[in-house]
User: Fold this.
Amino acid sequence: MKSKWGEEENETIDSIKNINYNGRILNVAAGDGRFNNLLLEKASEVVAIDLDEKDLDILVNNTPMGLRDKLKIEIVDITKKFPYTDDSFDGVFCTGSLHLFEKKEIIKILNEIKRVLKPKGKIVIDFATDIKRYDRNGNEVVFSGEGLYSMDEAINFLKEKLKCFSLDIVKSTFEEECSEDSTGYKFIKGNFIVLSGIKYRV
Ligand SMILES: C[S@@+](CC[C@H](N)C(=O)[O-])C[C@H]1O[C@@H](n2cnc3c(N)ncnc32)[C@H](O)[C@@H]1O
Assistant:
């Protein structure tokens, strides 16, 4: 699927396939829907949440008609309490987004992910590190308020905060040229980790 946020990375696709999602899945900060159709193929329902209504409209348009009955979209600020009850999802998915926040916000978001996820619920989370962004003139772009994490720092932090999961961690790199101005940059590169696992205690 074509997305303004880049390619669907093979490492994340493999993690989605290996974790074998089923049931009701929450796609946190879903954007314009990278990976969302893969989730829909496995799930009985996917709830895709984001702050950006335009991206969610594109996500719906990117969803084949045969899968739309299983899709629900909602505008949600993920830095606030999620509007869902405890243990209400079989899986949670979140890519390309957590690295945008400072640690105290990430902790709040991960706590909400853990709260809404059922025991034995499944997660796939990716986290970008060592990011460099450039505008079309080659000048570096830095987003205000973002954490800018190194690989080791991110792995140690996420392992600690996801202790209640049996975690599998895959490391990789990415490099993208963006076709859209709304991303805020023209080129981006860095490393990323994909964490997948099952919640085995609260
Ligand atoms: C880099 S995009 C990644 C989108 C998608 N998950 C993907 O992998 O392509 C980050 C997404 O986070 C969303 N976002 C940023 N802050 C948010 C917030 N406080 N609540 C909900 N979504 C937020 C943005 O609107 C954007 O869609």
User: Anything to note?
Assistant: The chain has one domain: 10-199. Residues 102 and 145 are 7 Å apart (CA to CA). Residues 103-116 form the longest helix (14 residues). Strands lie at 24-28, 45-50, 71-75, 89-94, 117-134, 140-141, 165-177, 187-199.
